[in-house]
Amino acid sequence: MASPPPKVVLLDIEGTVCPISFVKDVLFPYALEVLPETLDSQWESPEFAQYRNAFPAEHAASRTALLDHVKDLMSRDVKISYLKSLQGYLWETGYHNGQLKAPLFPDVAPKFSAWARDGTRIIIYSSGSVNAQKLLFAHTNGDPTDLMPLINDYFDTVNAGPKTESSSYEKIASQHPEYPINEWLFLSDNVREVEAAKQAGMQSFIVERPGNAALSEEERASHRVVKSFGDF
Ligand SMILES: CSCCC(=O)C(=O)COP(=O)(O)O
Ligand SMILES: [Mg+2]
C-alpha cells in the first residue's frame, strides 16, 4: 500500500539542507578560531559555566585541557552533546555579526515555503544543538533569510537522543501525537539514520547532495534516494 503523503517533514541538516563543507570547512574552523579567546575571557564567567561544566571533569580542569579535548573531538567529528552545545555558543557571535551565513541548497527555501503553504509541518532533527539549529535557519542565504517562522520544532541528541537509534524517532513523534508516525517523512544524508527512522515507522528517504558520502548499490536498492526537495 502506498505511504500516505507526509503531514510532517523531519529534516537533518548537514548533508541534507546545507553542504557538509559548510560545517566542516566553515563552522568548525570558526569555532576553533574563537575558542582560545573565549576561554581566556570567559573561563570564570557564569554564562560560560554551563558549557564548561558539561564537559567531563578531567577535560574541564584547565583552559588547555578543554581546548585540547575539543580539538580532538572535532578532529574525529564526534557528535557528543556537550561539544555540540559549546559549538552553538561559539557560533552565536559569528552569525550575529554576519561572519556566518548558512548556504542552503537552492531547493530548500522554496520547498519550505511550499510545505508551509500546504500545511506540512517542518521539524528539524540534527546532531547540532537546538541553539545551533535556530542560529543556522535564522541566518541563511535563502529568501527569506530567516526560515525560523516556517519551522515548527527542533530536536537534537539532548531532547531526542542518538540519531541512529529508532527510539529517538519514536520520542520525537510522541511530542506531536496529532500526527501518526507513518505520516512523518525523515530526510537525511546518513543511511543509518534513515534506517533508524524507518524502523520507528516513519517514511524516510536518503538525500544525495554534492560532497556527501558515496552510496552503495545495496543502499540505493534499499531506500528511495532524492537529489533535491523538488524531487517529491
Ligand atoms: C546545526 S548546524 C551544525 C551541525 C553540526 O554540528 C552537525 O554535526 C550536523 O549533523 P547532522 O545531524 O545535521 O548531519
Ligand atoms: Mg547529516
UniProtKB/TrEMBL annotation:
**Cofactor(s) recorded in Swiss-Prot or TrEMBL:** Mg(2+)
Cofactor binding, per record: Binds 1 Mg(2+) ion per subunit.
Q: Which GO terms describe its cellular component?
A: cytoplasm; nucleus
Q: Which HAMAP family match?
A: Salvage_MtnC_euk (MF_03117)
> What protein name is recorded for this chain?
Enolase-phosphatase E1
Q: Which reaction does it catalyse?
A: 5-methylsulfanyl-2,3-dioxopentyl phosphate + H2O = 1,2-dihydroxy-5-(methylsulfanyl)pent-1-en-3-one + phosphate
- Tell me what organism the protein belongs to: Echria macrotheca
Pfam families to which the protein is assigned, alphabetical? Hydrolase
Q: What range does the record give for the signal peptide? A: none
The record's GO molecular-function terms, alphabetically, read:
acireductone synthase activity; magnesium ion binding
Q: Where in the cell is it found?
A: Cytoplasm; Nucleus
Enzyme Commission (EC) number:
3.1.3.77
GO terms, biological process:
L-methionine salvage from methylthioadenosine
Instruction: Classify the source by domain of life.
Output: Eukaryota
Which keywords annotate this record? Amino-acid biosynthesis, Cytoplasm, Hydrolase, Magnesium, Metal-binding, Methionine biosynthesis, Nucleus
Q: Which family does it belong to?
A: Belongs to the HAD-like hydrolase superfamily. MasA/MtnC family.
- Explain the purpose of this protein: Bifunctional enzyme that catalyzes the enolization of 2,3-diketo-5-methylthiopentyl-1-phosphate (DK-MTP-1-P) into the intermediate 2-hydroxy-3-keto-5-methylthiopentenyl-1-phosphate (HK-MTPenyl-1-P), which is then dephosphorylated to form the acireductone 1,2-dihydroxy-3-keto-5-methylthiopentene (DHK-MTPene).
Cytoplasm recorded as keyword = yes
Q: In which pathway does it act?
A: Amino-acid biosynthesis; L-methionine biosynthesis via salvage pathway; L-methionine from S-methyl-5-thio-alpha-D-ribose 1-phosphate: step 3/6; Amino-acid biosynthesis; L-methionine biosynthesis via salvage pathway; L-methionine from S-methyl-5-thio-alpha-D-ribose 1-phosphate: step 4/6
Provide the binding site for substrate.
Answer: S126, S127, K163
Residues the entry annotates as binding Mg(2+) = D12, E14, D189
